[in-house]
């Protein structure tokens, strides 16, 4: 069983927040631990937002508590009226995640049956200790660079296999591929995109991540590769042109690596188009249909390469370039 960083932070921060509040002899000191637990989030951005939501909602809760409890009295009916006013206010101010924490503060004030400066300061201290402890612990976030680069490597290996299998079919007509790489590529793309978002949210002053563009480009290329597969099934017989295309896909598979070689392969595509247009006309219907599918395949792989050429992101700060 793996214990994550968030679990460790929660296990450390909650008792420390309670201990600090208890050392300061605050009433309801255990609530500081509850606030810490709620404010520890998977990313720095979410942690800051969570802290703001709870702090803002608690301030509003204390204001409403003073106005309603001191006007109506400390009666269960007063809590109902307070919540009717308080909850829509937090929704309007987009502080909804702070409702639970604020409800605890409201019940503290209700149980005390009075509200004075000393009690308000006590509640503010609990809130500040709980939120402060969570923010302090969330200053450290493990780097996701290695995980993202691993995702990149796995993705490139699977795309290489996919291109190699297409090459084998075009050259030999063998259907030995199970297609498992399609499922793996889809899973890698989904996971990597989540990691990129998490990485951006851990860097408060960075709005984008160069890998976001990379994985977006790879997803578009993957969609094109999936569109090529039905074209292959329409080629019942092998011809010289299909073998030539198979050799090209072999070369393309070997080029799935750091470094952009799209321009070189685009030149090859143009040469193949010229060769095919100058070759002898098809003699049978089957040969005509196969030749037409080969031309469509060439068109799709040209789009694949144009994506690589035109949408290659600047990855220099990460030490790698898109392939």
Q: Which helices and strands appear, and what pairs or packs with what?
A:
Blueprint: H1 5-23, H2 31-39, H3 44-72, H4 76-92, H5 99-112, H6 117-137, H7 145-172, H8 180-202, H9 210-233, H10 240-254, H11 262-278, H12 285-310
Helix pairs in contact: 1-2, 1-6, 2-6, 3-4, 3-5, 3-6, 7-8, 7-9, 7-10, 8-9, 9-12, 10-11, 11-12
Principal-axis shape equals elongated
Number of helices, where a helix is a run of at least 4 consecutive DSSP H or I residues: 12
CATH top level of the largest domain is Mainly Alpha
> CA-to-CA gap between the ends?
36 Å
Low-confidence stretches: 316-323
Cα Rg: 31 Å
Structural class: mainly alpha
Describe the main β-sheet briefly. Answer: none
The average pLDDT value, as a whole number, equals: 83
Explain what the structure shows:
This protein is an all-alpha fold and about 325 residues long. The chain folds into 2 domains: about 130 residues, no CATH class; about 170 residues, Up-down Bundle (Four Helix Bundle (Hemerythrin (Met), subunit A)). About 75% of the residues lie in helices and about 0% in strands. It is built from 12 helices and no strands. α2 packs parallel to α6 and α9 runs antiparallel to α12. The longest helix is centred in the N-terminal third of the chain and has 29 residues. The chain is elongated and about 95 Å long. The two termini are about 35 Å apart. The C terminus is likely disordered.
